Amino acid sequence: MSGSPKYSTVTIAPAYARLEAQRRRTREAARKRQEALRAKERAERAARRAREAAARRERARAEAERRETELAARRAARQEAHAARGRQEQSGADARRLDGVEELLDRVRGQEAGVRALREQLAQLRGRVGGAGELGPAIEELRGRVVLLGGEGEAPDRGAGHGAVLAALEERLAGIGPEARGYDQQGYRHCVDLLGELRAASGPGGETRFRALLGTVEHALTRHAATGGERAAEELRRSERAREDARRAEERAEEAAAAREADRLAAEEAERERLAAALAEAADRLGVVRHAVEEAAAEAVELADPDLAERIGAALAAVTGPLAAGAAAQALTAVAALEEVLVGAEARLDELHLAYTRRMDLAEALQDAMIGEGFAFTGGAERDGRLLLSFERPSGATYRTTIGTDGEDVVLLYQVDGEPDVVLRPDPEGAACDRTEDLLERVHEAVVERNGFVPGELTWQGKRSGNDPDDPPPAAMEWTWSR
Fold this sequence. Notes:
- The chain has helices at 14-106, 112-128, 136-153, 162-176, 178-183, 185-200, 207-302, 306-325, 328-372, 434-450; strands at residues 6-12, 376-383, 386-392, 398-406, 409-417, 453-455, 459-460.
- Helices cover 71% and strands 9% of the residues.
- It starts with 5 loop residues before the first strand and ends in a 23-residue tail after the last strand.
- The protein is of the alpha+beta class.
- A hairpin with a 2-residue loop joins strand 2 (376-383) and strand 3 (386-392).
- It is rod-shaped and about 175 Å long.
- Strands 1, 2, 3, 4, 5, 6 and 7 form a 7-stranded antiparallel sheet that branches.
């Protein structure tokens, strides 16, 4: 290749600028329509998620009600089973106590009318065994009446000997039973003490004392029997109340534990629902834009903006990674950022498309102009955002042309080989390429006449035009054109 590259900065004619502005507005309107469609799809997906979430909540509510119903049924069954066991145990205890009362009643002598009345009451109580009512106090009351009636029937004959009277009173005390002794220890000791005094008075010369103490002993025995029965009944009532209180406390503790467990499960379910909803939202929002994002990354590569393609790919990966890992908050943040990246990328791609169209239009205009000057078009390619065109004159000289951009400017770069007025290196006094310059100037005039582009002055390094031959060329001078 001979000579220095020649270049010209191309400006846009007003007509073409208006056409390009219209294209820009059309693309912007299309972007807005596309974003509106995506917003609509996001809203539809959000509404669908809301419906699905409401349906899940309704199912969860129904399931919670079902579990609560089952829990209440199990609780009622436990309570009924406990009550049945309690009634069974109580029935057994009542039956045993009634058996004891009947044994006492069988030992009563005489007092036929009183015994008959007590047996009727005993039969009534036996009929109530296993029922809902509490029989303990009634049984103890009946026991006390039997003891009293037995005491009356077994009252010692005051005319009998002292030994027989003492024996009858001691047997009466023993008949009151150890249960009464446990509930009325003071009364029992008092009875024992009185019997001791009565025994002491049974000796010679103690007749008067013996008779005086006899009534006191009989009264103490009657009182001991009644007190023991009353206290036994009261203790039984306290025991039953304590047992019932303990049962209820146990039930309350079980209910509280069940409620805590239900709250824990509900909280875990709510957290799972929140995470699932967030992940579903992130996945839906990604689904709305993913195809557009992937297309934008591919277009960025095609339009020679690898940095933009890399940014889009990184933003997409920032969503897919957390989604796969189940990191809902991170995924939502990343998908929001991806949506913003897509909006900016599409605007940038529109500008890249406009620049590409501008280069193609200029290439078409240049190709027509070159052919009009007798050149043959020998091929073209696109590389790194630049168009590479090759032309050949009938003389065999080749013109390799690059159409690219230098900042905001469009630049034409010519590399000429085979023209006699193109020297191998710049002349210190200024290089002259008159015939080639005239030819390219005619090409540029044809471009201006037919299209909306205005090529500037054709220049090259060392041109005799008052420029400093050492001025650095524009960035276009660094472009290369490989065969």
